[in-house]
Design goal:
This protein has 107 residues and is mainly alpha-helical. It contains four helices and no strands. The protein has one domain. The radius of gyration is 27 Å and the shape is rod-shaped.
């Protein structure tokens, strides 16, 4: 099963990067560019870069694409009726025959 942890990490980091960018925009719009404003701007841009790189790495590795393709393959898989599925029934009977032969040899 595909692990969803990288997707959750990328989502959290994307939110943090967007929040940091919003903070940087606020500092620029507020207009008070003293020493404190410059420091805040540098901190916000650094945080946005750090968290944005984690998100970019997850997207570049294709974790999101794998998750979406796994969801689509499950959704597009035809539902089989267990009563009319002859392949599953034949497979089950074959497994039972192998098991009975194996236990007969061991005894």
């Amino acid at each position: 099963m595909l692990s969803r942890e990288p997707i959750a990490l990328a989502a959290i980091c994307a939110l943090a990067a967007l929040g940091s960018l919003a903070g940087a925009v606020y500092v620029l719009i507020a207009g008070e560019m003293g020493l404190d404003g410059l420091f805040l701007l540098i901190v916000f841009i650094t945080f946005a870069a750090a968290f944005g790189l984690v998100t970019a790495r997850a997207l570049r590795k294709g974790h999101l694409r794998e998750l979406l393709s796994a969801g689509q393959s499950k959704a597009s898989a035809p539902a089989t009726d267990p009563k009319t599925d002859t392949n599953a029934k034949a497979q089950k009977e074959g497994d039972m025959a192998e098991h009975s032969e194996k236990t007969a040899r061991e005894a």
